[in-house]
Amino acid sequence: MPLVPLAIPQADVWFDAAFLPPDEAAALLHELSATIAWRQEPIRMFGREVLQPRLIAWHGDAGATYRYSGLQLEPEPFTPTLHALRLRLQQATGAAYNSVLLNLYRNGADSMGWHADDEPELGPTPIIASLSLGATRRFRLRPKAKTSFEAKPVSLELTSGSLLLMQGATQQNWQHALPKTAQAVGPRLNLTFRRIIT
Ligand SMILES: O=C(O)CCC(=O)C(=O)O
Ligand SMILES: [Fe+2]
């Protein structure tokens, strides 16, 4: 299916609910869960060190160092599987990616808090291609506090095999999050392909 634009003011967000067929998404979830060197990183929160409520991995071309939440991530090389996915996403989105942040949400207690991916190394208009595998989780978007436009928060169910593309002014004007859920859900693996300006 093609990417379709979502009607979100002052943002540039596209969605394809079925970028990968379900069987391929399931096989990828299985392979990546078992082969990626997952880590749980400490981050600074309100001056304290806590563990991130999810597992992560950072892969990229040489020099694609990513700094966020007090972390400095040096890239592991692209694996053949990650490289093949990169090529397909480049084809589908018409952009070039040199890195990918992988997030593994082990169950409904794992989450990601409100943030914008607006670090300087992503440039003024970051482009992020986000592929979801496994359990369906709700993704939320809300306008940043200091915006001049009126808009309601947006909720999106990210199903297995779906592709979400955020580009243009999205990170300047909006924040996003993946809240915890009290429902019994299995693991969800998310890959966000990015372009780090090196
Ligand atoms: O898991 C998701 O869908 C969101 C991930 C995300 O926002 C990020 O990696 O910056
Ligand atoms: Fe993000």
UniProtKB/TrEMBL annotation:
Keyword Repeat attributed: no
Organism this protein belongs to: Solirubrum puertoriconensis
Cofactor: Fe(2+)
GO MF: catalytic activity, acting on DNA; demethylase activity; dioxygenase activity; hydrolase activity; metal ion binding; oxidoreductase activity, acting on paired donors, with incorporation or reduction of molecular oxygen
SUPFAM superfamilies, per database record: Clavaminate synthase-like
Keywords, ordered alphabetically: Dioxygenase, DNA damage, DNA repair, Iron, Magnesium, Metal-binding, Oxidoreductase
Domain Fe2OG dioxygenase, chain residue ranges per copy: 96-197
Pfam family membership, one: 2OG-FeII_Oxy_2
Cross-referenced InterPro entries: AlkB-like (IPR027450), AlkB-like_sf (IPR037151), ALKBH3 (IPR032854), Oxoglu/Fe-dep_dioxygenase_dom (IPR005123)
Iron is among the record's keywords: yes
GO biological process: one example: DNA alkylation repair
Name of this protein: 2OG-Fe(II) oxygenase
Top-level lineage group: Bacteria
